[in-house]
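One such shown below:
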Amino acid sequence: MYKFSLFIFILFNLSAYAQSESCGFQLNGHIDFDSTKDFQSLSVVILNTGKGSRVSENGLFSISNLCAKSYLLQIKYFGTVLSQDTIVMKGDTTLNYQVKLKITEFGSVEILA
């Protein structure tokens, strides 16, 4: 019984160690935003993780403590998705994106009371 308990204890600790080792990756990047250069209204979000980053005034972002797996990344401007991409983290990663703001103009609206 003692050997079995020791085996389970070692197995559990090795599993926890392996998981912690593969979840310390960092995603860094640069966004070239040709619109108003209002970088501080840009954000980078990794869906279903609660992780994200505001973009600095130089267009840089960084998200840490990511695990080795695939993620869905979104670049948002005031909450509107400008770009979406699937990324695969196998280690520390650096990405570069170029995004454009699409402006839609509407015709006139007449309100009658």
The beta strands are 25-33, 42-46, 51-54, 60-66, 70-77, 80-88, 93-99. The helical segments are 2-21.
